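yo

u said u wanted the structure for the complex thing, so here. seqs first:
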Amino acid sequence: MRFFSPAAVADRPAPPEAGDAPLLVLRDIVKVFPGVVANDRVTLEVRSGEVHALLGENGAGKTTLVNILYGIYPPDGGEILLRGRPVRIPSPRHAIALGIGMVPQHPQLVRRHTVAENVALGLPGLPFFRPLRALEDRIRELADQYGLGVDPRARVADLSAGEQQRVEILRVLLRGARILVLDEPTSALTPQEARALFRVLRRMREEGCAVILITHKLEEVLEASDRVTVLRRGRVVGTLRTREVEARQLARLMVGREVQFGTARTPRPPGEEVLSLEDVWAPGDGGTPALRGVSFQVRSGEVFGLAGVAGNGQRECVEVCVGLRRGTHGRVRIFGQEVTGRGPRMIHEGGVAHVPEDRIRRGVVGGLSVAENLVLRRYRHPPFARGPFLDRRAIEAFARRLIALYAIDSPGPWVPARILSGGNLQRLILARELHGEVRLIVAVHPTSGLDVAAAQQVRRILLERRDAGAGVLLVSEDLEEILELSDRIGVMFRGRVVGVLPVEEADPERLGLWMMGHGA
Amino acid sequence: MRRIGPLLLLPDPNPSGWWAVCVSLLALVGACTAAGGVFWAYGVSPLVAYRVIAEGTFLDSRALPEVVRRTIPLLLVGTGLVLAFRAQFWNIGAEGQLLSGAVAATGVALFSPLPSGLLVPAMLAAGFVLGALWAALPAFLRLRWGAHEVLTTLLLNYVAAYGVEWLVHGPWKGPSMMGFAYTDLFPEAAWLPVLAGTRVHWPTLTLGIGFAVFGSVLLYRTVLGFEIRMQGENPEAARYAGISPAKTVLAAALLSGGAAGLAGVGEAAGIHHRLLSPGQVSMGYGYAGIVVAWLARGNPLGAIPSALLLGVVFTSGDVMQVALRMPFRVTDVFNGLILLFLVGSTPLLQTRIRWAPVRSKPAPAPGGEGWTPSSRPS
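structre next:
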């Protein structure tokens, strides 16, 4: 152990401390960013041998707080106490030396290298000759100890998202971390993988580690944590024992008012087919086939949810549907018409709305004004274009109407779109895409990064359109969202839809197995 | 967010127009200071040098027309490049496009049977077309096979330069030029008219200013300009909106190449009245145009003052040669330094500096428009 992580040896506490003495205290932490107080006198106490959840909406200040703990930002006020002694953490290197480890939200590994090679990166004290051999043994030992089944010789590129995350955890443990921070760790995991992760966290707790689990999902807090600290708009609104709370109470603390769970989705007989894919094949960005014979149908008046672990062809599938990618084989029909080979403009003008997965990169042009972004789809038609010229007045009038209709919070129609917040950008995109006669909506991660209220609003808009007779293709990695909104659910795995179920027969367990390629 | 003494540095994604001007001026001051080092190394006091340059250029009414005549090609080239850069078509080949324009003008002037009244318009048209074609080739290569235009446009400069060299040494060598590598002089009907007593060929100057105005209207008031801006700001979103990159890239390439071609017509028909070796036709206006476009910060009208400034730099080359016995090519050092400082100042442009000796509450971001010619978004 010594040659791997001297810091851990120096700092290792004797036996796990008894319940009450806090291992780590962040006291009255203040952090101000231009225009926003991200952390306002936040106090967090973490004991050794506990999983402490940090719950809050996007923008509540969770990530800021742990970034301060990990030495990424200096705090503007307050202090950090480790085992009762004040410490200064000017950089992640110092944090690591103090036994604080961060498991990033998205694994940051060298894909072509093996697990052991990745773990070796930045690890001090490896022997000069055959360093990996010693390390591999150590990895197996630790993996056994914590139930992290990982083969040190496997190549990272061959691992699933859950396995890659375990590699990140191993890396942190090997550097001697006694305090682990996990930032939204389940966002890319199947339900089964998430459960396995929680088992690992419990093992860590038994070994006397302290785990800080950042999340905005209530079920995770209830399932995995011992105590929970709820943040709202940069302030702590409460620290509670998980055993003594229930979901509704946590939701109220997190959002600040009573929350309506679920969206009223009334059953509705589906209409005619609006989108149909038949044995569609298409290349991915690298040229190898990303779609290998996809077939499914979306009917009017229904939400078809497409679930799956990221990277199994959902993105390519959507791009083929909206005309951004060409299939090499198979047929795509929209409203009964073959659209293979038509461009995105023709397909959109035929009545297809597309809410793209990446707002910033594809959905808007940040440097152009809000008004210009709102006419992105129809600027070439009257009244916005008159001959070769643009009619700025018509554009402005249209923009003002949509800004009011969709409650886009913008200082005006002519400010650059990039100054808008995520929720406002998403409203901008919805306003633009859903304007006019839309009979098919293709929505990809429509609520990612939005706060609870904004996400709820987006879901309501989608369901309203469904009730009005539009077909909705909803792609999401968030199973709960899929289960809440969809009438039928399809699961993609390795470029195929491996199964389709009506929502009444779907449960997370079965979908999770399909997402991993089992049982379909 | 960082702090230097009492100054607080805040990131600002939406800098105001006046801040862009401030940063540009600061970059110019930085470039002049650095160029002072060059003077000093040459054994000339920088202060003396700048005084001599000022007196020899913009403080001297007789030198002003010289400044203007150097501004003409810079304005045409610079405005064209503003359009190209807004579409993210990184045209480094204006020098070659300018030379093509000069070749086209020479061909029309010497070998066409047109009546004298039509000669000048025909030369301008031919110059625009050949310059545009010279830029169309790299645009085509990029759209068809993804060949990067920085390489292709740059390399085509050499093709153009050696082409001109070959013409003036070979087939077009003037019989009346006693062995010099010139073509014959153009007939007088093919000379561009000048303002009396100067070398300011005003038709080209008018075209330059007109082109800057046209470019501004094009970018901000037309469908095509909207598409060009969208393509340049976010190609991925442009694809999503169904914009064909072939159209925007080609339009930007043709316009910038054509404008450079017009500049070439101006140099051949307005100054030299013949075609001669490429280094004498152009003095590097095609490269300096890049500095003009960068200094204009994406605004075609901004090319007017920035071309004037570079005109002063070029004229100062003559002054330095005569009064300080320094080589004319010191101007290249100047231009290079200006570009270096302008590009280097981009992070500063996206920073707001606040005087905050003690902790204070931050203010909301100001409004206004700003454009940064940063690299392609990844």
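The longest helix of chain B spans residues 116-145. The first strand of chain B starts at residue 2 and ends at 4.
cya
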